[in-house]
Every structure is written in structure tokens, then in C-alpha cells.
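Follow-up to my earlier ticket, as requested here are the two runs.
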Amino acid sequence: MSSRLVPLLFTDVPGLDHVSSALEREPCGYPGGVAGSVVSSLASVTRAGVGGAWALGAAGARTAGRVAPVAARTGLRAAEGSGRVAVSAVRQGVSAAAGVPARAVRAGRVLADLHPRRHTRQVWASHGRAHIEVRGLDLGPSRRERLTGGVTRALRGLNGVRWAEVNAVTGQVLLSFDERRVGVDRLLNTVRAVEKAQGVRDADFPWAQPVTPGDDAPVAAVTAELLVDCAAVAAGLARRVFRLPSLPRVVPVAVAALELERGLRRPLVRRIGPLETDLLLSLAGAVVGGLYGGVGMPAVDAANRILLLREIRARRQVWERRERDLCPGPACVPHTRPVRHLRGRARPPGPVEWWEARLAPTAPLTAAAVFALTGSTGRAADALLAAVPRAARYGREAFAATVGRELARRGVVPLDPSALRLLDVVSAVVVDSAVLVREGGRPAPTAATVLAAARATGARVVFTEDERIRELLCPSDEIVEGRERLADRVCALRDHGEGVLVISGRDAEALAAADIAVAVPDAPGAEASWSADLVCVDGLQDAWRILRAVTAARVVSRRCVRLALAASATGTVLALVGRRHGVLRALTPVHVASLLALLWSTRTARHALR
């Protein structure tokens, strides 16, 4: 398979706009030369008769002599340009077609990776750059040092590899190579050979390692869920048209219990991993929704999956554009991994988690009350299903997906997009003051706007001590004095139960300690902030957008919780007194509220980042 095109799902085939036009302009003196020749020839005819006629003939011959080569060159260039366009289109089509089987195989491996630790290796390659995950780097310092040295030496020894360095933060070897001289398959085989020699060929990867924007796993999972949602919609319609029997009530009740009580998922997560657990529960929910509750739930699920796919596509596109900017050369690859401090207290719950924690013990009691009053297990099951706060979850997910897509479209690189799902738990914003100062020692033009956005979040705002921005500070702002490390203050805030967002340029340890890490590079070509979750390559304006999203996120979550509460209450009433087989069933308000939450959250996210 060619290494020039990474055949990733839902990635656009590049256009042909990079092919320059072959019809170049004519030489500047050409039109004037023709006119001058003609005028000179006419004058010669008038003055000298036959001699002038001879001069006209000579001028015409000279003109024809100039026109013929130019026309020939223009025709050849046009033909050559058309040939290049055709060859480029054929190559891209062949590469895309050749990549389809590889994409399918990799997607299958990702979906079938049902293990406590991840077996599938992350690999990304495009336009002479590659990120290849290395096994065994988490097995101790001595093993990591031997693997790092062995992998880099082996890859640098290949003909066509310009440079290779192991990124200590991502656990991947980052390299630049000549695609005409060495392919991705050979690079992979070289890495595998070193792993085998070091005895780590069968080692697994930790699920805690973030999935890079170029990896296939999120695309494969969401695509599978979307396909199942569509099949569930079709199954629900077929069941209604042909009056087929529905699933036993115990099946949807069991799925609802798993959705309400997250503690029941932990054994499954430990056994098959978090990604596969979410995938299986999503697939089960879609199937149950289609075969028991009709088309409402899988239809809303499908709309949510479409938003997620749009976010993933935007992430992949910005990664393709900005990957080289994150790390222009080997000097930008971090060789040490920042210390990751464990939390002293759990992360504060957001509005959705707060509501779910109080709903989990009351939902079974409500279902039991419905059963006691009606004597119907079906009505009790409907009451339990209506209690699941789907509108709150859909609203927050739609908001995060839209924020991620809009930020990626503006050039922000999401190294760990899961951080966007924590925007509504931020209670402390920590800003490294160095990012607010430009090279001349004065505050950046957008510094005051960023500070105002930080204060508008309603969180406590903390700055590092810097005389250059003192005039922009308010009495309510907290200051990290020069003798205190920024990472220590971040850890102290976390230990007090705060949800911490950090904006910094180079402090990798403070970024690694944050719940949401936003990196703002201070100069082009600076060391890549691989410890960050979001990298604002274009500067403070993107950091301002992220702070605006934080302000809107908590409002969105709270309103979606209220919407879910109203839907659950209405659904419980319908389960108690409504018609079991009528058009307006107990789950109808839940589906309507979920759709409204999706639409409203998407609109709010777009408005917040405008």
C-alpha cells in the first residue's frame, strides 16, 4: 500500500487544485512584435514596391517563425498538464481503492479488540511523516531506554529515513522519510523487529493513552454504531408495519439499569476495555430501542452519531494540516514524559453527573410505585426507561462535538478530544502569564479579551506572577508567586476538588496535571506541547474561544438536565395513566426532549464560538 495516502475512513480524497496550469502566458513582447512587423511591412510596400513586398514576405516569415514554436510549446504544455492531471487522478483513485481493504481490516481489528489492554497499534503516515506506536515503553525505565535507542537506531539506518525520534509523551516514534525510497510497511517491520529483539512483541498498550486524531478507532466505532442505529430504525419500522412481537421487557430494563448505574459497567470495562464497553452498550441500546421502543431512540442516536462523525472528520483534517507545525523537526520531539500527579480528590461532578447520581436510586423506586399502582410490569418497565436522562447526555455530547468541530475548523489541534466533554466541570482557570505577552514585552492585543473571557466563566482565575500584565489584573484574581511552581498550584487545586483548565505555552508538567490542558505555542517551531489536550497553533484567539465554550457548557448542561427531568416526569405520568399501545407512549417525551437537546446544544455551541 502506498504510504503517500493514509486510507482513513471518511477522509476526503484530495482535489486536483495543486496541479498548476500548463497554459502559461505568452512572452511579453510577442503581441507587440507581431503588430510592429505588420506595420513595418505595409510601410515597405508603399515606399518600395517589389522591395517592400519582399520585406513584407520576410516579416511574415519571421512572424510565422515566432508563432509556430509558441503555439507548439503551448500545445505541448497543455497536453503535458492534462497528462499530469490525469495521472494524478488515476494515482489518487488507485491509492484510495487500494486502501479500502486495509481500512476494513483495521476497522475490524479495532472493533474486535476486546481485551483489558489494547492490542491494536496506532499508526499514522502521510506525505513523508509517520507516527508509529511502540510496544513496551510503559514496562519500566530501563526497558524504555533500550527500546527507544533500538527503534531510533534501526529506523535511522534505513535508506530514505531522514530522522526518527521517540515521543516520550505519546509513546510513538515520530519520523520523516522519503516515500519514494522507503514505505510504511518497511518502517513497521523495522519497529516490529526491534520489539521482538527486546522481548516485547506481545506487549499491549494501555487504554489510558489518548487516541491520536489520525487513528482509525474512533471512526470505526462511531461508524459501526451509526450503521446499527440505521438498522434499528429499519427494524422498528418493520416491527410496526408487520405487527411483529417486541423484545421481552427484561432486556430493555437491563440496558436501562446499565445506563443509570455506571458502577455496573466497571467489571465489563476491566474485562474488554472502555472503548469496547461504550461500543457494546451503544449497540445494545440501539437494537433494544428498535425492537422494543420503536424508531425514536435509534433515530436520535443516529443524529448524534452524525455529529460525532463530523467532529472526527474535522479533527482528522486539522491534524493533516497542522501535524508538521506541531513538530517541524527532531528538536521538537519531547524525550521525557512529565510526571502525572494523581488526584487527591475526585473530579467535581458536572450537572449531568450530579443529576444521574440522584436519579439512580430513585428510578427503581418510581418503577416500583408504578407497578404497585397499576399492577403492570410493562408500565413499570416504561417508567424505568423514561427515567434515563438521555436528553442531558445527548445535549452535552452534541455541544462538545460541535465545539470540537468548530475549533478544528479554525485550526485548533485536539490531541485528546475527551477533554471537551469536561468543559462543564471547570471551576478553576489557570493562565501562564507568559502566553499573554508578545515579544516586545508588552501585553498582546488580545490579552485583555482573554482575561475577560476567563473571568466570565464564573470560575476562580489564577495567573502566574508577571509584572508585564499587572495592569490587566483585577483584585479578585489569584497570583502564583515566582517561588511556587505552576504545576504545584494546579495539583493543589485538584486536591481541593476543583476542575482545572490550564492555559500555558511550555510548562508541560502543569499541562499534564490539568483536567483540560490548552497549549498556546509562544513561537513558530517551538517544542510541541504534546502534554496538552488542545493546541492553539494560531494563538490567543483560539484560547478565547475555548473559554467562551467553558462559559456556555455549564449553561447547556443545566438546561439539558431540566429538559431531561421534564421528559422523565412526563414519561412517568404516561406510563401510569397513558395507553400502552397508543401513539403517545411513555418514551415519546424522552425522544422529543433528546432531539430538542441535540438541536439547541448544537446551535448554542456555534453561537459561543462565533
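Run two:
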Amino acid sequence: MAYELVVDESRYDSKAIAGVAHLYSVGDLLPADGFSGGARTVAHRLRALGFTVEDGTALTYGRQQMPPQLVLQPRGGTRDRGPQNFARSVRQGIPIAAIKDVLGGHVDVLATLYPDGIARLWGSTPTTRVNNEKAKALRNRRVGDDVLFYAENHFIARARILHLFNSLPVAQAVWGTDEDDATWEHIMALGDVEEFPTRVPAAPVLQSLNVPAPLRSLTLRSAEDYNRVVKLLPQSSQPPTSPPPATLPDAPSGLTSAELLDRVGSLNTHRHPGTRTPSRHQPLALLWAVSRIAASKPRLAPWSCFRAEVSPLLAEFGLPGSKATPEYPFWHLKGSDLWEVHGIESDASSMPQPGIFNNVQPIAGLTHAAAELLQNPLTRLEAVVKLCSTYLDDVDQSELLSRVGLAGYATADGLPQDGSGQEAADEKRATGPTGRRESTSSRLIRDAVLANRVKELHGHACQVCGTRLQYKHRPYSEAAHIRGLGSPHDGPDELQNLLCLCPNHHVLFDGLEIYIDVDGVVRQAHGGESLGHLRRHAGHRIDEAYLRYHRTLCELNGPTTE
């Protein structure tokens, strides 16, 4: 697939642009065969930098608008009950009625996907790492991708992803837990399941895909890579099943980030009769939809899920005296051209009665084009800022973002503040040794080499104040990520995304109390007072896109003076 960089309506080959950029960055031209795939390398990187990148191939309407990627899925051995789980949840399938109580809003989606009432499910356990093969596969696989099941040095079956969702209760009900008390909560709903009559030796396929054998982890390869090895796999013996129209992505619309933000800021909202204040129903529903993208949830959701999750937001954060009517944004957001509804005639002259929604259970959500743009963390953050500043500036935005699952925007590192540091002060004083409480934590894996590199380049001097600290007779400084690694920022662990700071300014930077303006001046977020220019080093290039992201984050949490 060809991906094109779009600038001022002109289109350029994205790989060629990236190859030349590599020349200017490190001194040598990167040839086309130096890329492992366009979608998740070149296109993903350019979009993260704020550029518009589009699929240059002609896409057709129908089930498969994008060529499938290839998901390599270890089945697992007897130790983790792999054969038994495969036989039960993939070969035989799980009756939807048996897990209905834990499915929540996904019950309607699965019922639509599996008219016979039998769901074919497979799951993966979580990973604490950020950029290993499994993390990348979990983050970047998509509906329509093909899955190859691997066992005992062979590929044993093939399937296609119909739906992706995360659910600990469903995973526990279907598979229980493993020896580490973890369960397979990253769930794929599968179709076109086909076990190979003769097992396919895995070595040639893995070698062609540059994947080490034996396959030990969930692994994703691009559509281009898939095309190279498809001849090594058996031809499908069954025609592909067609998913219901509600799950089809819409045709590409050419929507740009600027157009998306413009539409977000100009919703055709109902005006309160007394004050002419715009209703918050559509903005709150859109904010909920954005949070689903940040959490890697499907863009489309059934009415029952939308009603259950959006109604409390409307009741708590809607205009005083307004009724919580979730059917209103569910239907009328279509006017934004960012939203689609399936299951009810779209040319109806007026909104259907609420009882019809309950009976028909339509599905709605962001358009494919809008959801794709919102995969870019900067565009997603700018959309949140636009919604909050335009429609929700007089609500408790910290509480609102926390309620919709975007609490990570409260800090630059993506770690919400819980106030737990005051626990000791609040608890009753006691004599004797301090008690202990057991806890479990999950930490992102950071590259210590990169952190040491940025510190050494600056001689452990803070880039804001120039302070060089000594601790235990050794220099001490901290490496701060500009766009945080944690969710929902999803920043990369690379030198261009790092600063060398003293502990004081690290806390202030992560706490969004200081930012770096477009001229490289460090300013206080509240008031804009200058703290001087950011100290630079010729060997440490800082990516302006990350500084822009941090500035936008400061704007969300308290407008800067820029």
C-alpha cells in the first residue's frame, strides 16, 4: 500500500520524504527497502509529527477497504491450557448467552456478528512493556486483519478479526487465569475460522517475515509483509463471511485534522431557551467517543452501551436544569459529519422515538476518517482542548476528564494525581514502627541508555535553570519526557522527546506548571512569566512537535498566555 504525505493539496511519496529526512538527520539516505512497512512505521511517524498522511491507493466500498495485516498468534502449550482453550473458544465457540451477564455493551455487537449465538473468541494477556512485539501488536492490530495460530513449530489455523475489545470479566469467564493470576483480557472476536487439514511448517514463513523461531509472542506484520508470504499458506477453502453493515468502515473522506477540529468547534447544538447557552449533550458525547479512541476501544458502540455510559455524563455535566437525553446526541451528531449511525434509516426526517432505539439497538460512533485522525495523540489532545474550551469551560474539567477515562491529561507523564500523598497526614498518629501496606504497581519500561545520554550531553545541568546537583558524591539530574510515555499521550522513548532537568523543574514540567514557547523561552503556565531560554546542546535535537504537544496540554489544564 502507498502512503502519501499531503501538504497544501500536493501529494508526496511518504517513504521518499522519510528517506531524505534520514539523510539530513543522520547523514545517509535510507532506501525504500530499509522500511519494514508504511502503515506502522513511516505513516505512523509522520502523523505523530503532525503531518497529514493518506492511503494513496484507490479503496473500494465493502468489507475490506484496507489490505489485512498479519497477526501471528501463539496458541500456547499445555502449561497455560492452550490446546483446551483453543478447542473451547475458537473451534467450538462460546455461547453468547453463557457470558451475557459479563459482556456489558459488547453483547449487542457480538449478537450482530454471530447470528447463530456462538462467538469465536481468543485473548492475550497484558504486557507492561511499551515497544516490544506484543505491545505493538496489541496497539496496532485492527478489524479485518488475518490471524495465524501457531503451535509446535507449525501454523495450525487461520481466522479474521471481526471485533476487538478489552474485558477482564469476559476473559475470566471464558478462560480463567494463568499461573501468574493474569488473564487474556485483550480479546479478538474471530470469523472465517479455518483449521488447516495439514499443518503448515512455520520456519519458512517466520524467516520471510524476519520473526525469530520459535514464535513466543503475539506479533504483527504489515500488509506488505503478508503479501510476501501468502503463497506459503494454504488457499482458503471457504468464502469469507460478510459482516453486518453496522461494522463496515465508511469510505475515506479526505478529512484533515484542521477540518476535524473546525467541525468539533462548530457543532449545531441546541440553545437553552433562557440563556441561549449551547447544550452540552453533543460535546459530552463526542468527548466520550474520543476517550474510546484513546483507550483503543472500537469506534462504534451499540445504543445500550452509549446510553449506559453517556447518560450519567449528561446528568452530571449537562446544563443546569437540562434533561439527560442520550438519544439526542446519539442521533443528531450525524450533522457534524464526524458521526455515523447504523441500524435506523438515516434519511428519516426527524429523530426516532426513544423506544425505537431500545427495540432496534442501533450502533453509532465516530466515522472511520475521524477515528483515524484521532489516533494521532496531538490531534486527539487538540480535539479535547477544543471541546472543553468551546462548550465545557465552566464545568470541573479535571473531574470530567477523569470520569470519561482521560485523567492522564492532568499531567505530562500521563499519571493522574490521586492525592494519596496526604494519607499519612490524614491518618491517626501512632507510636512505634510505621505500618506497611502491600501494593501492586505497573511501570513503563524506559530506555536507561537514552536517559543517561541526555544527562551526559548536558553535563547533568538542568536545561531550565542550569543547576548541577551532587548526590552521594555523584552528579544527579533527571531525564524528562516531553510527551509522556503513559496513556493517553503515548509518546516515544527517544532522545528528541527528552529534556535534562533538575528534580524541581521536572516536577513543574510534568505538572504542567511550566512550558516552552515557540521561541524556546521557558514560561510559567499561569501568567506567562519568563524563566529564560531553554538551554540547548548541538548534539541534542528536540522535536518541536513534542513541545507543541506539551504546550497544548498546558492549555487544556490552564490556558497559557500564547
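The only thing I checked on run two: Residues 303-317 form the longest helix (15 residues). Let me know what else you need.
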